[in-house]
Write a structure and sequence with these properties.
Layout: H1 4-15, H2 24-48, H3 54-92, E1 109-121, E2 128-139, E3 143-146
Antiparallel strand pairs: 1-2, 2-3
Helix pairs in contact: 2-3
């Protein structure tokens, strides 16, 4: 989105009749869709092969290899989503000192959300309670508390 030249080229390519008005995203998703279709095809082949035959052995090997490939693809997609979340979060959060590297290969965001912090003022004659929003970001290796910029 930040590169205007790339956006213009992308829009021109997507509007080309050869692309059939499909977006870049659809072309990126297409290989994953084909892999899952292959899995369904192999399941049907396995149903129609005779148990113990050479065809069944080969189809089972192909199915197992395809299952491993799909599992690896899903894991890589999750890893990329996690990295994208970390990049987005690091752009939103401003640290007072940059000693904490938010983006890491092993770090992933587990849960995040807004909470309300209660502050009790014990110096006043009446216990006064004030509230302020804080955000919790739970990673697999640490917990980060943040607050909105004032």
């Amino acid at each position: 989105n930040g590169n205007a030249g790339f956006q213009q080229v992308l829009e021109r390519l997507e509007s080309d009749p050869v692309c059939q008005r499909l977006s870049l995203k659809s072309f990126l998703i297409l290989p994953f869709q084909r892999i899952t279709r292959l899995k369904l095809l192999l399941q049907n082949i396995l149903k129609r092969t005779h148990p113990g035959s050479e065809e069944e052995v080969q189809a089972t090997q192909a199915y197992d290899a395809l299952e491993k490939l799909i599992k690896d693809c899903n894991e890589n997609v999750q890893r990329m989503k996690s990295t994208e979340e970390l990049i987005y979060l690091s752009q939103k959060i401003e640290f007072e000192c940059k000693i904490f590297p938010l983006i890491s290969q092993s770090r992933r965001l587990v849960k995040c959300g807004e909470l309300t912090a209660l502050d009790f003022n014990s110096l006043s004659p009446k216990w006064k309670v004030t509230t302020r929003p804080i955000y919790l970001h739970l990673f697999n290796d640490c917990l980060l508390l943040s607050r909105p910029k004032e």
